Amino acid sequence: MMQMDEKGRMRMSKMNTANAIMTTSTGSGMRRVAGKRHARHVGWAGLAIAGLLLAGCSSLGSAAQQDRSFVLSSDVKSDIQAAELPMVEGEQTLLSEAIRFSNLLSVQGDGTLLFNRDHGLYRANMETLGKEEAEQLLDIPVIEVSQNGKKALYEQGETSYMLDIATGKQTKLLEYSGGMRGIADTEGNYVSFQQAGAVLQLVNTDTGNVQTIPLEDHFTVSNFSNGPAKYVDGYLYLDISGEDTPRGIYKIAADGQSAEPLLLLPNAKTDSLAQFDLLADGRLLFDGVYDKEPGIFVYSPVTKTVSLLVAGNGTGAETRTPFYSLSPDQSKLLFHIYEQAGGADHIFQAELKEDRIENSRPILRHPQLYAGIMLLTHWSDDSASFYVKLTPWSEENQSGNVESIVSYQF
Asked: pLDDT grade, residue 288 (50/70/90)?
């Protein structure tokens, strides 16, 4: 069962599972990966996936409620019938320094790590971490690093700043009242702030230009439901709800001249949103519970249809929603399923093809992970590789520290 930790991060609930650090297949037995920091191949010869709910192309029809039919794609059907898939191998590097997963902010293709310590932001290479002194980039911890690893958002008092990591330039953005804030695009060129009184502000981090959008000019807003806004091609996208404002993803012009719903949730009492991404062709990728069904979905504003990509399981308080991590080029994703029967996490890689996924393969099976895959993954800029921060969770180990980083070639 998913729970939130003291800072709102998702983790798995307690289960009676083996206290394993990492296991790899050795024929008839399982082998622990432990000891001093080193690189190692990580993989399994096979993974039984019967009982996991995968949906390669399942139409939920229009965004309005209607009858639904769940249809598995042929490749997923054959995978389930075979009940075994070859595991994708990764290269594992154990970390000699205890770094909490939320403080390890960026893993780059050359092995560079950007991470917070108590007294600032630091840079080091994963191969030399603990052997050579890490480089301090800033004397206070930062809030987040852009997806491409080039900019970092931080605060001093009530004032926000942006650090250019390559040049060291620090740009003052604005003061804010303590609402949601965050980098709004992959490059770190825009930061969104949710100010008191349902006011949304977008700051260009290169020019310092601030655009202010009073959301109540368009609708009554009582709740910013999930995270900061996302900025794409002149529009902000935000998960909001309020009195006479049904919950959903709203498309808001950055100049404040227009606001309209992109996708509304059909069942206010049961539906929810966890994360979302705007795809280049205008479609919306999201996970959560849609029309009472947990899963990962894609919505087409052209056809007004929602398609189920990966289904969750359970109902009510026991509902388990799969999570995803999308590649920078938006052609690939990782998805994370929790198998209740075995108390284990399953991570798959797959290709995203319009309203379906193809060529899904397992990359990792672990008794329990501390957080969802979206909080544990970093992609290379070219989407050819990705890095998983292996962060085990057990009753004996609730630190959230990254044990190792496993690199994969897609």
From this structure: very high
